[in-house]
What does this fold into?
Amino acid sequence: MWYTSGMALHLAIGLDLHRKECLSGQNLLCAEMSKRVFWCAYVMDCSIAINMGRPLSIHEFDITTPFPLQLSDEQLTESFEVPDMSGIIIPLVTDTSTFIHIIKLRQINAAVYKLFHSIRCGSMDPDAMDSDKLERTRSSYFLSLNEWLITAPRYIRTLSTFQSTEWFQIAFHHAVLSLYRPSRAAPMPSSDDLRVCTESAIGLITSYSSLYARNRIKYTFVAIHSIFIAAVTMLYALRASPSLRQDLTKPVVQTNILTFLTLFRGISNGRAIGEKCSNIIERLGNSLLTLFNDAPVPDADADVDTEFQLWFGLRTHTFATPARYDELSGEDQGISSNFPDIRVDMPWEDLFAGGIDMGFIDI
It folds into this structure.
């Protein structure tokens, strides 16, 4: 998929469709189709590259071609001149309003991906932001995502899943997870960050459940990937935050885990990938539930289990071999000698050994 979508975008770039100069001298139909072809290739490449942890094929500053006009195919073929688009335009099911809104989201996705998940954005990068500037930038992206969701087009009657309110919610929550989950730029999320991750993971799964209940969601790589990332992120946040576990309670977490498993097995429709993801989440979930039997930690400073975060971060954000980890003592890694907790953390260890490495988000 990444190869095919990348090849399509490279062909569009080879035709200079990413530059506004290519529109010179074209009539309305040809100009609009050129813009649609380029931005369609851009959206597909961006989505697949981010979900597969591959480099983006084009940078934002290399693009000068404008967005397509908000026109339906009928309006486009019947118009000989550029219509007046200055007034308020009501979104129609048949026009490009959804497409334009998805382009705007992919631009935010790409910016977050490059800033937070690039292999060069860690502490060893001389151009890396300081923590305060990084947090301000992240807050700015979060505001942009909320604005994107608020301004999403609404349709009175549509049969398309991609024009449903639930789909816009899914896209929003998936973007928020990319912004706040552990990354190279911010490998140890704060308690507030973990709470945002948990809320977005639950929001994403709720929207997927609504679509699935109406038989409006089908198997795709992106759907399975989104659900899996949401499930792992929620379980990670609950493992790392004792206060978050107290807020949700064990029955609520059990229900959320069962919802994830139902969706995996339902959407995958017998495919091996669905069963593999289900087994991973089920094992991680069962190990997490044992923590609810522990007595609450009275220490106010224990909102986040930094030992777990540091251990998990070392496994995620470095490329040392297992033998190298054996050579490192607990003191050298900044982790106590009795960590990880064998009751609950072996499934997290096996998450890497089993071949699904959270480090796949590297650029």
